Amino acid sequence: MWSYFKFEFKQFFSNIKNLAIYFLLTFATLYYVFQIVPNYDPIESVSENEIEARYLTRQEFLDGIEGQDLNGAHPSLLYAIDVFKAINPIDKGRLDALEEGDLTKYAELTRDWYYITNATTYRNELFSYNPKYFINNKGYADEDAFYAYLEQAARYDAYSKADFDLTIDAFEQRTAFQTLERLLKEILPIILFVCVLLLAVDIVTKDRRHSSIIKGIPINDWRKLLVKMIVVFIGSCALLVPLGLGFLVIGFQNSFGHLHLPSPEYAAHLEYLKDGKFEMMTLSQFLSKSAILLFVWIIVIISGAVLLSLIFRQEMVNLFAGLLLIFGENIYFSRKVGNFWDVQNFPTSYIQVGQIISKQRNFYYLNNYLDWGLALQLLVTIVVVIIISMFFITTNKRYKLIK
């Protein structure tokens, strides 16, 4: 069996297609690190000029109406005056805190700023969120901004109570660990899963090119498949090498941050006005849960590709089925569709790993049942079913792995 493992291992890492995948992932990582990361422009940034501009504009307005008789004034004007009088002292305090370098005080005031601003902006025609939320005319821009403001408020609340040194890079989520957090909530899981699928799609069908050699190896088909899956899993873990390189470069550029940084988790059961809709976990908890779910997904994709290879023996069929699994959520994904469908029962609903851990997907779907634990139960059950199916297929006397 060891000899067969070395044979498969050598074939896998000398396969031109597999080497091309590693090369392209390395190129994409370096492009991201040196082109995208330096130009990263967070919607919610720490901008002294922006805060000052808002403060001065509002203060000029307040100074202009000071001493005027406001009897009979339009209710909207009176409301705006009340809001400006509530927010401007906070913005002045934020400016002073930045000038003094007191980031703890800045975090405390910024937490309050996000709560008050959100309460006075959401579904209010008089005020608007940051226009960046409305790029591409997003239909749910107000909801996304509402979510983002509450999330930012929760982060800054954690910062204001932190027992570690605070930095502007941490506030803007530029550190290496926070960049990884952002990527896990965006495109990284999809990229990893597609790479794993491409690595696994021909692990069985390629044996046709060496049928005489394979038939001469004295182990049964079941063990051969186990070895193949182990080799692909090792190859999938090797995808982390270029990603790790990118992580190190970002760390040296913007600092690594640390694993005690806050990572908010959406909590639908909390009241917005009372609790803020977010609970807090540390970045280490977020990354640990994400890693576990990623690795289980990788096993699902590898074992699924191998099972399909036994049934259909066609790489294109395997590839199509795998892509359907990875991108299948797009077929039914729609904001708030969780009100009508039990999306928590669909494996494809858990592809966006970071959004599952943070429960951002729950907010999108308006479904409270999407959960990390349920995802593990569902995916592990799928793996068990696949493994049992493979065992019965390969131990059937009439079945031949290589015909």
Automatic annotation (TrEMBL):
Key word Transmembrane present: yes
Keywords annotated in UniProt: Membrane, Transmembrane, Transmembrane helix
Transmembrane segments: 12-34, 187-204, 225-252, 290-310, 317-333, 372-393
Keyword Nucleotidyltransferase listed: no
Name of the protein described by the UniProt record: ABC transporter permease
Lineage per the UniProt record: Bacteria, Bacillati, Bacillota, Bacilli, Bacillales
